[in-house]
Write the structure tokens for this entry.
Amino acid sequence: MTEKLKELRERALAQIKEGVTPEKLEEARVAFLGKKGELTAMLKSMKELSAEERPKFGQAVNELRDELEHVIEEAQTRMKNAMREQQLSSEAIDVTLPAKRRAVGHRHPNALALEEVERIFIGMGYEVVSGPEVEKDYYNFEALNIPADHPAKDEQDTFYLGGDFLLRTQTSSAQVHEMEKGRIPIKMISPGRVFRSDEVDATHSPNFHQIEGLLIDKNITFADLKGTLAVFAQEFFGEETKVKFRPHHFPFTEPSAEMDVSCFKCGGKGCRFCKGSGWIEILGCGMVHPHVLEMSGIDPETYTGFAFGVGLERITLLKYEIEDMRLLYENDIRFLSQF
Ligand code: DAH
């Protein structure tokens, strides 16, 4: 019997040694230690032994079972460690390798310029508000004192959407929404998209951006308008910038003006940039027309105000000395990353 046990031990140890995968090892465990395994069978065959042989044999079988269990466990641990080792080395990363360069986007010059404009006006206590791009005729024209037969309403300029609706042709419509809220004083700028049925060329696009400004309070004069816009021009284009106001006409302001800035390229001497004049026109402005105030429920006897409208692309092109507006719409990253 002990001979048989010895032989079984040799075989079991050999098979466990051969068990190089978790499955093989499990097979070996089942073959010897399982319910129907060889060692279990040995234990069952004990009844054939004599009473004095039995305890000794039983002890030997138990010892062998403990030994085999221990050896299998060790083999399992070894195998697990080896597998972990392998996984770690296959997943290892070389942190000294140079990183791949990722192409990141770049902020658009329009966005940079707008941020600057907002910073300047917020610094003077203005609020930034936005108005709808789809407007009723009333907000885009009528409430701004633009009568039904005004040439600006021509279908060649305005995208009509049917019914009473259109795509706003100017951010001035945002003025009306602010005035209707009935909260005075008003001190706001309103940047946004506007739409006009224009052909694309170096200075035109059917879709561009404006920044509207509106200030309404008691005792607001044209001097306030001039002072405010001069500060804006100097902060935006540089301290040495001079401003000049030329009389103009807009239906919603009276008096109206256009503001020129001294050419920041030649300082006013005249160059290609300012077409020899030394001045560059940048915005329209004026004192809000009493009729416009009245239509939005503001008493023109008590309150006065000024308004202005700036083309965002226009001042972006000037600030960054870009020659063709189309570059602003192509979004070529090689162009954008220059700013
Ligand atoms: N809305 C005008 C335009 O699109 C620009 C403008 C001029 C706005 C004078 C104003 C203003 O607020 O006072 O051409």
